[in-house]
Amino acid sequence: MGESRKKIPVSRSTLLGLKVTLHATLQISKMLYMECNYEYLMTATLSQDPLERFFSVMRHSCGGNDHPDPKMFAQVYRLASCFSLVRPPKGCNVSGKDLLKTLLGAQGILTSPNKDKEIWLQNIDIMVESSEPLLEGSLIDEDHDYNEAVTSDAVQSYIAGYIVRKLRKTTKCVNCLQALQMKAGDGRQLQRNDVINKMDLYGGLIYASNELFDLTKQLEKCVLRTISKTLTNVHTISQISRELKKEVLLRVGCFQHEKELTVKIIDFYVVIRSYFLAKSENKRYEVAKIKTKANRKNAKLLS
Ligand SMILES: [Zn+2]
């Protein structure tokens, strides 16, 4: 060891630095390969600067302290992590105090974030199990469905096919899979599959079985009934589940997994449907905002 050090014209600390760098590089590449599916890594692009900058920010935040300890670092790190959250964004209408309150309030910590999801799944369980509607649909519903939008069968069939594709990844049972889809030869004959037929030039689209198609139609009816009554808001999902309770839902799947699979389909359908609703609502909100801005500008010019 002593002799070999003499041969290499580098200092002990440089050598140690090289060792540390190599070790870190190997660990990073291993992690990226195993966990992030990297195929190759250009080590030249690895940079330590952001990390150094981060530590320098941490040191600066402590004030003039030459001997920071791990405890202090942890504290400052936590403060820095929530700093951008605590600082009210430009033009926001929530004052600093309220913002802190919502961030530091303990309500959210005590209830598990998955609780809502659990309740929702339990709800679907109950709906699927019952053979009668849980809620009575009022006559008003039937009389006033003229402002309901209608989703065409072709689109519905396409969505049902999409659901099959998603479920195929997690469903192992052969009988269940058979219950979900239809042979392409039979599917092509049906009028509801027009859209799929036209798009199938690119291949890979799936024809949903009649059972699944009918179930999604039932679900869609409930979604449309919900949005015909109110605008999309935080309670939309619970309102949809209220509408669902008025129906006796069909079941899809083999005898053994029927319930499980149906719950999965309902959950999946309502979630993607809500996602689309939220997206279109956001779009509408954005348009309204731009319009207001333009109106303000015009008002200024006139006065
Ligand atoms: Zn099955």
TrEMBL record:
Recorded hits in InterPro entries, A to Z, give: TNP-like_RNaseH_C (IPR048367)
Which Pfam family would be a valid example here? TNP-like_RNaseH_C
User: Start and end of every Transposable element P transposase-like RNase H C-terminal domain?
Assistant: 46-78
Name the chain's protein.
Answer: Transposable element P transposase-like RNase H C-terminal domain-containing protein
What high-level taxonomic lineage is stated for the organism?
Answer: Eukaryota, Metazoa, Ecdysozoa, Arthropoda, Hexapoda
